[in-house]
Amino acid sequence: MCGIVGYIGKAGATTVLINGLRRLEYRGYDSAGVAIIDDDRIVISKSPGKVARLNDKTHADWDPTVFQRAIAGIAHTRWATHGPPTEVNAHPHLDQSGDVALVHNGIIENYRALRARLEGLGHHFYSETDTEVLAHLIGECNKGDLFQAVCDALHQVSGTFGIAVLSANEPDRIITARRGSPIVIGVGDGETIIASDSSAIVAHTQRVIYLDDNDIAIVTADSVEIRDLNNVPVTREIAELNLDAAAAEKGGYDHFMLKEIHEQPDTLSNTIRGRLDFDLGSSVLAGMGTSPRELAELNRVVLLGCGTSLHAGLVGEYAFEDLADIHAEVQQAAEFRYRNPILGSRDLVVAISQSGETADTLAAVREANQKGAFVMSLCNVVGSTIARETGRGVYLHAGPEISVASTKAFTSQVAVLIMMALKLGRGRRYSREDGIKLGREIESIPTLVARVLRQDEHIAKIATTYANNEHAFFIGRGPMYPVALEGALKLKEISYIHAEGYHAAELKHGPIALLENGTPIIALAVDIPGKDKTLGNIEECRARGARILGIVTEGDHETAECMDDFITIPSCHPLVATIPAVVALQLFAYHVARIRGCEIDQPRNLAKSVTVE
Ligand code: F6R
Fold first, then answer.
1. pLDDT (tens digit per residue) in 531-565
2. What Rg, from alpha-carbon coordinates, does the chain have?
3. How do residues 99-154 score in pLDDT, each as one tens digit?
4. What is the homologous superfamily of the domain 453-603 according to CATH?
5. Which numbered atom of ligand 1 lies nearest the CA of 490?
6. Which H, E and C letters describe 412-454, residue by residue?
7. What is the rounded CA–CA span in Å between residue 581 and residue 523?
8. What residue spans in the chain does CATH classification 3.40.50.10490 cover?
9. Is the distance from CB of 439 to CB of 425 less than 8 angstroms?
10. Is the CB of residue 574 less than 8 Å from the CB of residue 479?
11. Dihedral sign, CA of 47, 248, 580, 549?
């Protein structure tokens, strides 16, 4: 949510900053801005809209030599929280003197009180943002030592922040700090890059330092000095990213989303590879850090997540109950700490998060840790806050997910959850023979997905029939119920069609009142237990004029004939089938959105990685 880049090192900083913003744009894209130091003063350019607009404006407004010669600067792409996405509300924000510039992710909760106090001292504010208040506060605290001023200001704020601060009076350094909003520092050769995520760094260096909460760093072209907010030095190791810069490019596809959908045979192979043990009929997930005895003694599995990750958790719930005979439940991470979760050391809590930065999931992890549960995570982004705070868990290895709508992360999350459930199941009731059989099915997931991807053109054609509808309903049963929820989420977020997912049986308890002639019903009618009941529910919809698009099993002609349109998935285990089924719905959503001319990779109002509550 919002993207920060800071750079200090060689001439050409403006280009580095703007290119960095382009890589972070998926985190927020309603306005952007950049500040550099030139001739002992701060020069700023800001614009509503996307980074491309900022780039045009900066080129138009700035003398080309200013653009090129700067060696230090900070930049930001915004997802508005306080005040609409206007130029004046865009970051960077200046202090009263105009000598200090700040970019900020997060929320300063006590900004109103601080603003009133500063106004009393003669400060004038131009924007509606909490960030401008923090910039003025730093300026007010600045007695000639920027680092100390930032420390003093941060002691006075409550809330969350990832910040980078530039001062015209100390042009050889950038001060950066974090509490609740990630900051990564790339350590290059005579250059240092600060960013809210590593995708802005990878083009420069693979060597990074992750700041912890309440760390504050003095960054120069060739040094990084980290202290805590009480000015006590702290040591943070340099980590290797092992990220391929090309992985964050579109690679010939029109959209990141389409690329990421088509990558899934590879990303799933990376998720599964080396994690199945065919001798034991089990899975090998060393990162879980659990002994067989600990697993056998578990009472319950609690799965936490938001949005798509929550839907993956719902599939996981079926997997744990089915394979491991253990009580499993999914909890909405945002609600978790506001109820009274009953947890103990024999409860396994699995936090599911692609980004590993989602504020609600992170807070739920902290709550679960505090209550003494056995907490682990399932993250995609290596070194992310949730991954580091849980200390154990399983990485997805799905590669950078740039499209705001999550696709490949979901399928990898589900694959890992099935493997986790298999591991637990083998220590409980699942036989070796059944484990080997399921292992073979899991191993075949990339091939199953490839078979769905081959229907891309067919799905694009079907999409033309549904693209003009303004409402759609997705229905499913058993593990296909969460797939229905996920299919509806994908369609609504990128095509803006009002889409709802329901358990197939639930429709007639109310929502069926909304059906009219031609209302689309997207039915998960895959050949798994419960299919016949779903077919009954489909007939109830058809009787009320609905048009039915079915996801059906290859070769199940009888079911296919019940549909107006259909997409097939290969026959497989009901839990495994969730993965090819969701891929069919991802492609459907993509093509509908494309026909409707939507901004697929960056849907309106959304941002990747929601780091505010
Ligand atoms: C939807 C989507 C969101 C995320 C949610 C959680 O396509 O991407 O619903 O799934 O914001 O994000 P993570 O998984 O990063 O915690």
1. 999 999 999 999 999 999 999 999 999 999 999 99
2. 25
3. 999 999 998 999 999 999 999 999 999 999 999 999 999 999 999 999 999 999 99
4. Glucose-6-phosphate isomerase like protein; domain 1 (3.40.50.10490)
5. 7
6. HHHHHHHHHHHHHHHCCCCCHHHHHHHHHHHHCHHHHHHHHHC
7. 11
8. 272-443, 453-603
9. no
10. yes
11. positive
Q: What are residue 348's DSSP bridge partners?
A: 301, 374
Cα(503)–Cα(505) distance, integer angstroms: 5
Q: 537 C-alpha to center of ligand 1: Å?
A: 30
Instruction: State the burial class of residue 458 (Cβ atoms within 10 Å of its Cβ: 0-12, 13-18, 19+).
Output: middle
Q: What is the pLDDT of residues 503-533, one digit of tens each?
A: 999 998 999 999 999 999 999 999 999 999 9
Decide if 553 contacts 524 (C-beta within 8 A): no
pLDDT reading at 1 higher than 70: no
In angstroms, what is the span from residue 138 Cα to ligand 1's centroid?
33
Please state the atom number of ligand 1 nearest to the C-alpha of residue 610.
11
Nearest residue to 136 (alpha-carbon basis) of 166, 108, 101, 171 = 101
CB-ligand 1 contact for 398 (6 Å cutoff) = no
* Cβ proximity of 560 and 568 under 8 Å: yes
- DSSP annotation of 212 reads P
608 is catalytic: yes
Give the pLDDT confidence score for residue 521 in this predicted structure.
97
What is the SS3 assignment for 200?
A: helix
Task: Give the CA distances from residue 442 to residues 115, 269, 273, 274, 424, in Å, rounded to whole numbers and listed in that order.
Answer: 56, 10, 10, 12, 16
Whether 317 and 343 have beta carbons less than 8 Å apart is answered as no
The CB-based long-range contact list for 564-569 (8 Å cut-off, 24+ gap) reads 565/462, 565/465, 567/452, 567/455, 567/458, 567/459, 567/462, 568/452, 568/455, 569/448, 569/451, 569/452, 569/526
Tokens representing residue 483 in the block: 């797939």
pLDDT digits (tens, 9 = 90+) for 145-180: 999 999 999 999 999 999 999 999 999 999 999 998
pTM: 0.85
201 CB-side CA count, 13 A? 30
d(CA 81, ligand 1 centre) in Å? 18
Atom 7 of ligand 1: nearest residue by CA position: 405
The model's pLDDT over 571-607, given as tens digits with 9 standing for 90+, comes to 999 999 999 999 999 999 999 999 999 999 988 888 7
According to CATH, the superfamily of the domain at 272-443 is: Glucose-6-phosphate isomerase like protein; domain 1 (3.40.50.10490)
Q: Is 493 in the pocket of ligand 1 (CB under 6 A)?
A: yes
2 counts as catalytic: yes
Q: Which of helix, strand or coil describes residue 580? A: helix
Q: How far apart are CA 17 and CA 32, in angstroms?
A: 11
Instruction: Provide the CATH topology of domain 3-247.
Output: Glutamine Phosphoribosylpyrophosphate, subunit 1, domain 1 (3.60.20)
